[in-house]
Amino acid sequence: MNRASFWLTVVSVNWGRGYDPGEFKANVMRVLKFTGGREHVVILPQELDEEPDPAKEHPQFARMLEPGSRRVHWHTREPIILSPGFKVTRRRKRQTMGSGQQIDGRLEGIGPERLAISCTAELEGVSLAFLNTHPHRNMPEHPEVQRARQHGVDVMADELARLRAFDGGTSGVWGADMNDSSIPQLVAGERLGNRRGLDHLRYWSHPDGAHLELKDRGSLKGTIDPHDPIWIRLLVTGR
Fold it and tell me: Whole-model pTM?
């Protein structure tokens, strides 16, 4: 029996906060122009509408997406966007860390609540898992923050293990601005897809799931924060 095989491009990008709507739109268009000619695409953005006075980035971004795109936990700061054709079979939202004020009311400027957004989705009979998140930055001088950050990474690792075990064995990809350049392996079989500064893309192939083969990777020009969008291109082969 022939096994399904297709190309998948995954992009991870922190789009910052407090930027002019026109600049945000230009950065989104740069990614959408890049992905527009590719067979199947997943976009993992972070920091959407993270300002106390949001710039209405969600509706602006939604108007730019290809009709039929799947949006997982869309109104969070860390949603998952899948191109048309995917069927989402599981979605989950988990808190990885409370806001700075919840952690230590004396501290200012250490960010809002953080979440890990995940899903499984089927395409051409192949099941894949995806996760998107954005932990707080390291603050070694504040043990409360460091403990909370480590708890968030532990939650993320637990969710990745659950995704990997889903339906008897599922392969997948995670992306994030991890606010750290050095991150240990978080799920069995994990491999580095791409990293640029604090931004990471990793993937894994479960022995009983689809085979993911990294074929290409790179980055795009960005003008928001110090983040350039990073991407990987995988050949996905079902079992």
Answer: 0.94
